[in-house]
Amino acid sequence: MAFRFASTPQPIVPGPGQESVWDYPRPPACLPSTRLIVVRSGGAAVAESTAAFRVLETSHPPTWYVPRADVAAGTLRPSGTRPTWCEWKGQATYWDVVGPDRIAAGAAWSYESPSRGFESIAGYLAFDPAVLECFVDGEQARPQEGGFYAGWITDDVVGPFKGIPGSQGW
């Protein structure tokens, strides 16, 4: 049986104040941001920052990386989640997020020694919006479908987004 690529996606035209993930570059860009990033677990503060980076890759909603100094003390512990490898950023280290009523295993990750071009996020933490409450300027982010990439979907980004059924070949 021959492998078939999924049909070519039809990008949504962005409206005023929006950007299309189909205009994001490949390889990805890593850009600083002063937007307010807030992460909570069960309503308790995990992180709050206006010094985050966002990684922008074609067909993916942004992934936000917060400085470790902006993460609440005692909310992270090393995870038993096996490290993974990103073709752009290198080896990811996973962290459990310790909340007031639960432990979210492997819900955060970092690149302690990232690949060239991503040095600015060394030690910064990314958080999974499918498991935690993640906000950009007060808007709660929706998780990227598929359970693998963990991008943050907000009203100012349009897709379609990789991760939906049929998007593996994008």
Unreliable residue stretches: 1-5
Q: Helix/strand-derived class? A: mainly beta
Q: What is the overall silhouette? A: globular
Following the backbone from N to C, one meets helices and strands in this order, namely: EEEEEEEEEEEEEEEE
> Any idea how many domains?
1
Q: Find the CATH superfamily.
A: Domain of unknown function (DUF427)
Question: How far is the first residue's CA from the last residue's CA?
Answer: 20 Å
How many DSSP E strands? 16
Which CATH top level class fits?
Mainly Beta
Topology:
Layout: E1 19-20, E2 29-33, E3 37-41, E4 44-49, E5 52-56, E6 63-66, E7 76-78, E8 84-86, E9 90-98, E10 103-110, E11 125-127, E12 133-136, E13 139-140, E14 142-143, E15 152-153, E16 157-158
Parallel strand pairs: 1-16
Antiparallel strand pairs: 2-5, 3-4, 3-12, 5-6, 6-11, 7-9, 8-9, 9-10, 10-11, 12-13, 14-15
What does this structure look like?
The structure is a single chain. This protein has 170 residues and is mostly beta strands. 0% of the residues lie in helices and 38% in strands. The chain has strands spanning 19-20, 29-33, 37-41, 44-49, 52-56, 63-66, 76-78, 84-86, 90-98, 103-110, 125-127, 133-136, 139-140, 142-143, 152-153, 157-158. The chain is globular.
The gist of it:
Helices cover about 0% and strands about 40% of the residues. The protein is mostly beta strands and about 170 residues long. It starts with 18 loop residues before the first strand and ends in a 12-residue tail after the last strand.
Give short descriptive properties of this protein.
38% strand, Metal Binding Protein, Guanine Nucleotide Exchange Factor, Chain A, 0% helix, mainly beta, disordered N terminus, four-stranded antiparallel β-sheet, 170 residues
